[in-house]
Amino acid sequence: MDAYQHILLAMDYSEHGDTVAQKAKALAAKYQAKLSIIHVLDNISMPDTTYGTIIPLDKDSGYPLLETEKSHLRALCERLEIPGTNRWMVWGAPKQEIVQLAERQQVDLIVVGSHGRHGLSLLLGSTANSVLHHAKCDVMAVRLLNDSFFEKL
Ligand code: AMP
Known about the structure:
This protein is of the alpha/beta class. Helix content is 38%, strand content 18%.
């Protein structure tokens, strides 16, 4: 099997986000691949900006909520040693933005959690499901166990 060259970690900061991040990091190390990260803002309203939907991480926006999101992303990227050029924060619908960025950046593996903030009662959340269906590259869904769900089975 060919080695992966560019891995994209889709991060939503849900309860199990760290597990997904560590998996992506380990895969990037194993394949000596470039590791990028995307966080899509779908939970805070978009202020008037001059820069469209891609948020420059190196400029102060003046919006407190946005600065909080940026500082979360920065802290995570420092821990994972992801350089500034490989960090993406965009406004939009996660399922679309993840797939589009992967195509634009020639990603060959997207790593998502099996569920995050939207799919706790499902085996596969809606974002994960849509990315699996629409991405042109490989997708790895890290199985995240939801104890209360599995107790019901
Ligand atoms: P969901 O299907 O929405 O429950 O989420 C499944 C996975 O999709 C999460 O574990 C993340 O890897 C990814 N994901 C969901 N929402 C976002 C987001 N806003 N930004 C980046 N990745 C996301």
